[in-house]
Amino acid sequence: IISIIGSYAMTRLRFPGRKFFKTSIIFSYMIPTAVLFVPMYVFVSKLGFYDNKYALLIIYPTTVVPYCCYMLMSYFKAIPYALEEAALIDGCTRLKSLWHIIIPIALPGIAVVATFAFTMSWNEYLYAMIMTTSGKQQTAVVAISSFKYADSAIWGRIMSASVVTSLPVTIIYIIAQGQLISGKSDGSVK
């Protein structure tokens, strides 16, 4: 939702600092996630969320939103402005035109971005390993690594846990596939 609103604002609205925000999104790609471990750790610890899943609820959006904004910005640019302009002339507000015109047309792109964001968050290992140390708070991906020991691994458990862990991602891909197939002109018909 944050990515939809942010990318819509950066592609359709003219406001001071728009170019700065676009540039900062692109520059955020250049910062390796490993560089952010210490600041994120300090931030999460000060909030009292260390070794808690709330830490991941704070971290994952901050790492995923710039990617999603960038992808949606290019998708929103491809939607003709004339459709939104016609809605604005007919009396629609910006929010209504976003909700009734832009989002229905952009549903395939939004489905791709949502699938990408879910997959990135679900499969993320390093932050989950660092921020959740107790067994109860660990994510499924981190818990799978506990089946591997220094000199051996329980491969049967690792493989079966990997299959179970990949099921949510597979289900999301199946659900998103319907949106990917739908036409681009869904919201443009009056």
UniProtKB/TrEMBL annotation:
It holds the Pfam family BPD_transp_1. Keywords: Cell membrane, Membrane, Transmembrane, Transmembrane helix, Transport. Gene3D superfamilies: MetI-like. GO terms for biological process: transmembrane transport. Residues 1-176 form the ABC transmembrane type-1 domain. It is a multi-pass membrane protein. Coiled coil: none annotated. InterPro entries: BP-dep_ABC_trans_perm (IPR050901), MetI-like (IPR000515), MetI-like_sf (IPR035906). SUPFAM superfamilies: MetI-like. It comes from the Bacteria. It is found in: Cell membrane. The chain crosses the membrane at residues 20-42, 54-76, 97-122, 154-176. One of its GO terms (cellular component) is plasma membrane. The keyword Iron does not apply. PANTHER family: INNER MEMBRANE ABC TRANSPORTER PERMEASE PROTEIN YCJP, MALTOSE TRANSPORT SYSTEM PERMEASE-RELATED. Belongs to the binding-protein-dependent transport system permease family. This is Carbohydrate ABC transporter permease.
